[in-house]
């Protein structure tokens, strides 16, 4: 079983809206297993997704595909492999 990339990102709540997921994918900011993906690309279990947001790069491993989820179940669809920030604004500045 597989699922469209834009639908996976929405159902898993990695990206809140499918239209935003489509836009990010079509700009070439998402990779599936190291290859640039389109919004219509298929996602399968055990695929690794690398998603480039503005300041953050999120790498996740797909653990299961669910057609519809409740908020609590969405996180079961993937494991976060890494979360890298170009500039980490979460840390206080030191003098």
Automatic annotation (TrEMBL):
UniProt superkingdom: Bacteria
Database matches in CDD domains: S4
Record GO terms (molecular function): ribosomal large subunit binding; rRNA binding; tRNA binding
PROSITE patterns for this protein: S4
Gene Ontology biological-process entries: rescue of stalled ribosome
Keyword annotations: Protein biosynthesis, RNA-binding, rRNA-binding, tRNA-binding
Assembly and interaction partners: Associates with stalled 50S ribosomal subunits. Binds to RqcH, 23S rRNA and the P-site tRNA. Does not require RqcH for association with 50S subunits.
UniProt similarity note: Belongs to the RqcP family.
Protein name, UniProt field: RQC P-site tRNA stabilizing factor
Protein encoded by which gene: rqcP
């Amino acid at each position: 079983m597989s699922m469209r990339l834009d639908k996976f990102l929405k159902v898993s709540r990695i990206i809140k809206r499918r239209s935003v997921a489509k836009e990010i994918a079509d700009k070439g900011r998402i990779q599936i297993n190291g290859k640039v993906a389109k919004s219509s690309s298929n996602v399968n279990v055990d695929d690794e997704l690398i998603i480039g947001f503005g300041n953050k790069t999120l790498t996740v491993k797909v653990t299961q595909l669910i057609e519809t989820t409740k908020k609590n179940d969405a996180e079961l669809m993937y494991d976060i492999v890494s979360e890298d920030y170009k500039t980490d604004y979460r840390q206080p500045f030191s003098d």
